Fold these 2 entries.
Entry 1:
Amino acid sequence: MPSSNPGRVLIVAGSDSGGGAGIQADIKSVTALGGFAATAVTALTAQNTTGVHGVLEVPPAFVAQQIDVVLSDIGADAIKTGMLHRPEVLDAVIGALDRANTKAPIVVDPVMVAKGGASLLDIDARAAVRQRLIPRAAILTPNVPEAEILAEMTISDQESMLAAGRKLLTLGSKAVLMKGGHMPGDQVVDLLLTATGISRFAANRIESRHTHGTGCTLASAIACGLAQGLVISAAVERARNYVLEAIRTAPGLGRGHGPLNHGHTVVG
């Protein structure tokens, strides 16, 4: 990778008009960490801190065209996927990646439900994610509710969280980051599972309603680290630290689940 390349990340995800999640959070996260973000928009959402109020689907062929033109010209050192709401969209994304024959590591954020509760992944698309996308992943980043769906089991403690992670690892992803933010306790514990072992990341819980877009932000920050040449554990550690500070310094916008401070790395 040329020294002038900051780390190119192609983000394949939906748009959040409120700016807290989706491609808006992705672009801000990658930029804040010194990377370059390109996008393929899969859906437009009318969204704010109180929830998702409307979704306009992007035709699958146009999703694929966005990926085609970015990879054929700008290229990517890592790819992050987010909202892929229908099987047809997933098919289009996989087809475009196959045409490009890209070797870039893929970070799969299995977006299923918005913070406000709206469904962002059709039931019919869940099997396709498990069977066709996860096996291509360098890392899968589910929260507990997403992991329960994908692993088809209940998670009630760290032991079952670890068991679910091991089960998800068998789907073919090179690594699984089990995010523990939904688990009770004063500490948030994330577990990184690979074929060679398990790493535990713990931090004191920050009590805040301003946590909209944390999953998108973390996944994109990890993708940026991989694009910049970090090994997976270092990319996860840097991304977690970035997200924690973004929560701690959140601007306090909106009446519901507010956005993070993605720009806290920017000085002046």
Entry 2:
Amino acid sequence: MTAASEFPIPPSAPRRAHTDTVHGDARVDPWHWLRDQDDPETMQYLRAENEYTEAFLAPLASLQESIYDEIRGRIKEDDNSVPEKEGDFYYYVRYEEGGQYPIYCRRAGSDEGPEEVLLDVNLLAEGRDYTQVSSFENSPDHLLVAYGVDFDGSEQFTIRVLDLESGETLGDEIPNTYYGLEWANDNRTFYYSVLDEHHRPVYIYRHTLGADPSADELVYHEEDSRFFAGVGKSNSGRFIYVAAGGNNMSEWRFLDADDPASIPVLIEPRATDFEYDVEDHGERFIIRHNGKGARDFMLATVPIDNPGWDNWSDFMPHEPGRPIRGIQAYRDHLVVACRQHGLPQVMVHRLSDGDTHYIAGVDEDDFAMSPRGGREFDTSTLRFAYTSLKTPAAVYDYNMASRERVLRKQQEIPSGYDGGQYETRRVWATARDGTAVPISLLMRRDVPVDGSAPLYLYGYGSYGLNMDANFSISALSLVDRGFIFAIAHIRGGMEMGWDWYENGKLLNKRNTFNDFIDCAEYLVSEGYTARGRIAAAGGSAGGMLMGAVINERPDIFGCVAAHVPFVDVLNTMLDDTLPLTTMEYNEWGNPNDEEYYRYMRTYSPYDNVRGQDYPPMLVTAGISDPRVTYWEPAKWVAKLRTMRTDGQPLLLKTHMDSGHAGASGRFERIKEVAEEYAFILHSFGMADTPA
């Protein structure tokens, strides 16, 4: 492995005196000044770090190119999604060979009719470094499309409206909006969310085509900074939903989609730790909720004309350990996405008589399976996706009445793929408190389990998000070089139910980090790898995980990739002007409360950097990132450069034209993965190892 000392001297961010005192605790923060993006020295430092990273990685250019070619070779470039029927049209997205961005299309009459291109995002992106289209929604009469577009990765969208008959963009352009918009059934009115000065979506407006957007009617204003507001539409098309959501709390309103002038009607007021969402069916709502102690959620029904809590009737009971993650209502069936034994399941419930069954046919021990929301209500067909770490994604149409399925699409691997060369395993590590933690593994069948294999260990463990075992065309470039690819399903996610999440948040957050370390130790003890042969990776809250575990146990890991890492936890959570801070008090705690402050102080990666050896590290940031601001990873790297006692590579790459999600073009994203993998292989002395 090449030492960092063989390359140019890394940048050094100057220290400036700054101290924050909270609850009598004085924290010296000499890199606080990096928060000022208007300070020329801030940008100078970020550019210097980028130049250093480029210089370090330059000798690995051919390896990066090889990995890029491998991954791109596994993509069917001229691909398309399975068309979705809505009325007389079939909508789909396709890509052209060499194209970075999707093309939105439809066909009339059947999915084999003549193609009509609605929006070619490649044309929209010409001359731009970043382009993202969101909320692409056609009007109910199929004559118009409204969509949002973001050109810098800030997740601040401008809504545009297309006339599908003329192909022209109308003058109804609305800036400063967020994800989500929905049409009323008059085909002239749509609802959308607007950001406040802190980049929080708290306003819901109603726009009528041709009207001045500055005069749009305010439908709802969320005044509690812990909540974001959004819009949705029922699968039946009857209602527009206005939902306010915070961390583990929600509140829903509905209005008549046939009457754009109607006023939102409250279903049930918000309450602490009370979460619910809504589907409609006939004269009733079907509600998924966690009231009555239903920590893993239950279902209720309620008359639409009198929807308050007192009228809720139990419909599907709470079953501990079977978290209900979502519902979709159709004319005759209710689809329930849930989990059993930590794995996803799809349940189909016949509404006429309560007959219930699970979609069967899974023959793997570890997999990912999910229903896909359809565009039609009056149908017996459910579309669902299935995949595993070794099984390319498949899309099925499932007849909920006959229980027959039709394969509509199987992911193609143009460069060739033989799943028989690989095996997956689902193993269980025992955490230090006795909890069994599942780990998903992918490996070649010829890789020995004798401690000699390098291992890529991914983790997240926050917000109750599940890291399911999805097929990855990227991971094969490591696995084919002898790596074992592993996902640690640590607490803080919700793979095993609500308790799994609750035991990895707030004053239990350290369980997340302990689980990851204990999973690494288990994989070593069972011969899957060895200490110093583990590449740990995570992004955002998973980047915080990376920072916490290398402060605690840097000896286990051979290198670390931390993408847009949330590492300056205290400073971020003490700043209530940032977009996510107040909303996330229920995830991390409010450090204005001394108990939470002291606890967060024990694990905040930036505050716990130590004078010790650290493994090689690749850190990324996005200059326009509204979720994890660029200055968190920048300050962290600056402090690591000063405190660490090793000479290992420490790289910071700030993407100057994107935000939290990185590059927008599909091939540009592959370049970022190839860069990470090349760094990992170099760190393990495997830069010359062929795939």
